[in-house]
Amino acid sequence: MSCTVRIPSPLRSYTAGAATVPAEGGTVAEVLASLEQRFAGIRFRMVDEQSRIRRHIRMYVNSDEVTTLAQPVASRDVVHVICALSGG
Amino acid sequence: MTTALWIGTRKGAFTLRPDARRRGWRLSGPQFLGHIIHHVVQDPREPKVLLLAAKTGHLGPTVYRSSDRGRTWREAAQPPAFRKAADGESARAVERVFWLTPGHSSERGTWYAGTAPAGLFRSEDGGERWQPVAGFNDHPMRPQWVPGDGTPDGELTHSINIDPRDPKRLYIAISPGGVFESSDGGADWAPLNEGCAADFLPDPNALYGHDPHCVAVHPHAPDRLYQQNHCGIYRLDRPARRWVRIGRAMPKKVGDIGFPIVLHPSDPQVAWVLPMDGQTVWPRTSIAGKPAVYRTNDGGKSWRRLDRGLPESRAWLTVLRQAMCRDARLSRIGIYFGTTGGEVWAGANDGESWRCIARHLPEIYSVTHAV
Description:
The structure holds 2 protein chains of 2 kinds.
Chain A: E1 2-6, E2 20-24, H1 28-38, H2 42-46, E3 57-61, E4 64-65, E5 78-83
Parallel strand pairs in A: 1-5
Antiparallel strand pairs in A: 1-2, 3-4, 3-5
Chain B: E1 4-9, E2 12-18, E3 25-31, E4 36-42, E5 50-55, E6 62-66, E7 74-75, E8 96-102, E9 111-116, E10 119-123, E11 130-132, H1 134-137, H2 142-145, E12 156-162, E13 170-175, E14 178-182, E15 190-191, E16 212-217, E17 224-229, E18 232-237, E19 244-245, E20 258-263, E21 271-275, E22 293-296, E23 304-306, E24 324-326, E25 335-338, E26 344-347, H3 348-351, E27 353-358, E28 364-370
Antiparallel strand pairs in B: 1-2, 1-28, 2-3, 4-5, 5-6, 6-7, 8-9, 9-10, 10-11, 12-13, 13-14, 14-15, 16-17, 17-18, 18-19, 20-21, 21-22, 22-23, 24-25, 25-26, 26-27
């Protein structure tokens, strides 16, 4: 299953500046594993060692918020990664 | 010999390099602009190597390694991370890498990292891959030793010290939690807090739960430990287990509360502290707005105020535990500290006279010296 992942600017140091990258996988977990294979280190910045999405990261498959990494991803879906900052 | 101060800040890493007479300092950086840098530490076994602890407001924590004195950096392949929790077990995740310490001189490539929540991690390949030190992280007493995420900044592992005579003798400090020692390379641990006050605990004679702010083992007299604690300044001469409060000799109006403590490179009688206001709601700023460093030359029997060149009044500086260091000189040592207001101060001749060598930096978390 091939999808597109939109990479936020804080993570583009891993993707050589690319804002969108193709990835493979039928679930969010598989998509993240596919990203990690190409861009080593990127997964741990988004997902902790207990496989929880980090507190100030949000992910969406198309417009549906990701609540579990088992969430399905279909071919041609777009996975959005959002970083939330507040204050200075 | 080159020399540099590495400044870790809330918004990136900077370096300060002096001219030959150490009068002018050249600022370079930032590197990692926008990243939160808690510690930048040189490897004394391989001086070209530095490790840097980083995270951002949203991204997870990691470690970067340089093998060219900080010109270029590469991220660790496996940053410090707790083991996967078993079913029903509290699932811990590293929120930040707070402290870095190179391993024993005989263990090239070995490093230790302290984290929040309190965890201890070890790398045996120069910081590329990190493993949890299960002997501490999974110690059956850990839930009692470390009371949990009860402070605004969370529980922190810091002050990782290795006995220069024995790579298996380790000391760590948890804030709050206390000082802990291991004599078997981290397989087992025991509290080492007797004699330390813990005014905030119901039991003043508690064996753990203390709040060490900074602990240092003397590099040439490793039976001597110094500690700046939330409740005073202490000294411990092993094999004794009871800390002695040497901060009682500080002037009463100043008290003996602070974050950092810095030791002399050869003389175990000499140490520097930077007192802060620990009264009422704990402002943690210079006492009465008059910053000063204090030095003891006699193991804490007496303290001398060092404030020449520092602001005489109306200066409310806060200096965090990693934000004070000395350089590599053996005499007329340079002492340095950075403030949360973004200033770096240099104290020449063992801290006798002070000069501001950088200002307008972001909030400073660490100041370390590299050769």
